[in-house]
Write a structure and sequence with these properties.
N-(1-d-carboxylethyl)-l-norvaline Dehydrogenase, domain 2; 14% strand; eight-stranded mixed sheet; 323 residues; Rossmann fold; single chain; alpha/beta; 10 strands; 2 domains
Length: 323
């Protein structure tokens, strides 16, 4: 498989950052926006209001023309998780052998399906990969060092994607544990909301460390149920992404939680994927008989069946047990 042209669905912050990264790796890139006005603004300014201060590199075509997908050797899906089904459905007929790389982190709220399952439902003959790991769009867009994982069930495809999309500053490690990688990205968003609540409530650094550690235990239990490998859970797309997302206001999910914890209304301009994934994650955990008290508390707060104080009390009153 020769990779020369890459088309990116989603001209938001992450899609724009990935476009810069792909150009650095030597590819021709089409950044496909939802509408002509958005594409024209990006093309005219050579920057994206959703990723301020990060100029688009030469070699990026900002467009709304969906034929770019039909001409691409690889398609990166950088749309929000809850929009993935509609975005994949709207794709034109793809070039034979062109894989789809999912760059969203979440579980579909309505169907409780993972992103790879959605793509396979719609395009059963298309190879699917997942790109996930500890990375902020602003860092990747500027070319600051970052390392993520790209996973596909076909090891040759995963290796090829890592070698061709990765660069000296955007390091891609390859894996065949596709489900483990996507679980890490989805679950950590829910747990990051909990970490933000701890920060917003000013419960202290000790509580933040405990929350992140016990949250990781939940993520690991859930991932193991689906056959995820230990090295995946302990790696970039698992522990690495959780540490990043639970530790800084640069994380949208963490910031969303901070707002909740401080009694503020989260900004409508912040897309917190974890707020949509929480109910699906908890429902799947119950089906698999996996104990996820922190994720369950986040879901209860989001659906207003518990106040934040009640959710915290419920966690603190859990029986003592062996670690």
């Amino acid at each position: 498989m020769s990779i020369e042209r890459i088309a990116i669905a989603g001209a938001g912050a992450w899609g724009t950052a990935l476009a810069n990264a792909a150009v650095r790796a030597g590819h021709k890139v089409a950044l496909v926006a939802r509408n002509e006005a958005a594409a024209h603004a990006i093309a005219a300014e050579r920057t994206n209001a959703r990723l301020p201060g990060v100029p688009l590199k030469d070699g990026i075509l900002a467009t709304s023309d969906r034929t770019a997908f039909a001409e691409a050797d690889v398609i990166l899906m950088a749309v929000p998780a809850q929009s993935m089904r509609a975005a994949v459905t709207a794709l034109p007929k793809l070039k034979s052998g062109a894989p789809i790389v999912i760059c969203a982190k979440g579980i579909e709220q309505r169907t409780q399906k993972f992103m790879s399952e959605i793509v396979t439902d719609i395009l059963p003959d298309t190879a699917v990969a997942i790109l996930s790991g500890p990375s902020f769009a602003a860092d990747v867009g500027r070319g600051l060092p970052a390392a993520v994982t790209v996973a596909a069930r076909d090891e040759a495809l995963a290796r090829k994607l890592a070698l061709t999309i990765g660069s000296t500053t955007f390091r891609l490690y390859h894996s065949t544990d596709l489900r483990g990688v996507e679980i890490g990205g989805a679950a950590k968003n829910v747990l990051a909301i909990a970490a933000g609540i701890v920060s917003g409530k000013k419960l202290g650094a000790s509580a933040a460390a405990a929350l992140t550690t016990r949250g990781f235990a939940e993520l690991a239990r859930f991932a193991r149920t689906y056959g995820a490998r230990p090295e995946t859970v302990m790696g970039l797309s698992g522990l690495g992404d959780l540490i990043l997302t639970c530790s800084t206001a640069q994380s949208r999910n963490f910031s969303f939680g901070v707002a909740l914890g401080s009694g503020s209304t989260p900004s409508t301009g912040i897309l917190a994927e974890g707020a949509f994934t929480a109910s699906a994650l908890v429902s799947l955990a119950r089906e698999q008989n996996v104990d996820m008290p922190i994720a369950t508390a986040v879901e209860a707060v989001l659906d207003r069946s518990l106040s934040i104080d009640e959710a915290i009390e419920a966690l603190l009153m859990r029986p003592f047990k062996a670690e």
